[in-house]
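Ticket #4471: structure export looks truncated?
Reporter: QA, pipeline team
Priority: medium

Steps to reproduce: submit the single chain below to the structure queue and open the exported record.
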Amino acid sequence: MTIKTIYLDNAATTAVAPEVIQEMLPYFETLWGNPSSLYAFGQQTRSALADARNRIATHLGTSDQNIYFTASGTEANNWAIKETMFAYQNKGRHFVTTAIEHHATSHSAAWLQKRGYEVTFLKVDKDGLVDPEEFRAALRPDTVLASIIYGNNEIGTVQPIKELAAIARENKVLLHTDAVQVVGHMPVDVEDLGVDFLSASGHKFNAPKGVGFLYIRKGIKTKGLLDGGAQERKRRAGTENVPYIMGMAKALDLSVANMHERTAHEMKLRDRLINRLLSEVEHCYLNGHRTQRLASNVNISFEFVEGESLLLMLEQRGILASSGSACASGSLDPSHVLLAIGLPHEIAHGSLRLTLSHETSIEDIDYTVRAIKEVVAQLRRMSPLYEDFMAGRKALSAVK
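Actual output as written to the record:
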């Protein structure tokens, strides 16, 4: 019997759209010249590269001179954080971020700490939101930069970035936002937001892996990332990955053109999935803000269940998702994001992240609910903690 595959891990990566592949092919097959070359063959790809940069900039409400291509969102985050702190170290050595950042940011913060920089990690509330007044209070005269994730990759909570950027600007602090989960999925106007840096990654919106970009507001004095050539206005040396950049521009074109329809579809299915799980499975909890969240994100914790076992048993039923537990990566600790919003370890270990796409159907959602109910029941039958709870020997953990 063939089991249908239901892919619900779009926050990890997305399928490359067929139109994107078609956009890329000429730059592998016929237009493969080096855009730095002076002859016409190279200048053709240079012209295509300029067009891609302009299209991306237009979608973000800015000038093409403010878009810098990278190999990933991780690279963009590292560049914005490390090189900006270096560039402005005469002003100060204080960096502000949150307890729920992607590791590309939190590990960059740890890297700075090892080199004598001071880092403040802002706490968040039970829904994963930063308190703007606590953010304001954390800023100091020697604060150079703050980095706050726009849409959280695990729990889906969307931060009030425009409000936080205004506070940063009032205090003469630069603001970077990791918008990897947002670009291509929500309208983004960097000038309206007021951010100084914004990171994005193509493979989160149906472009290939290995390409992203960093928005840097005009006038920002950040150090270049790589030395060697004059590419990216002398800030990131190295021959540009033209086919992938062209694919990313096409993917963003498609995402923006279909955004309203896609978002409405994903939100409808997201809410159906959340409502059914919360009403049909006992002792489970939604993680992240109920409405102020990414349209495609569902993160649920199931008490008396181990997340890794839940994942493996769902895979046997054709459902591909991810866990709030870091077991698969070799760590015994649950997600730092789930701990930061106040989940006890034992419940954080039983978390499941399901991220949808425009291709997800109602039938997929209903099948997934049935499968989760079956698997959770099976795992709980094998759990001594659940047995104790049902026998009245262990009280339900205090959550929310």
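Status: closed, not a bug. The export was complete when the record was re-opened. Leaving a note from the reviewer for reference: The first strand starts at residue 6 and ends at 7.
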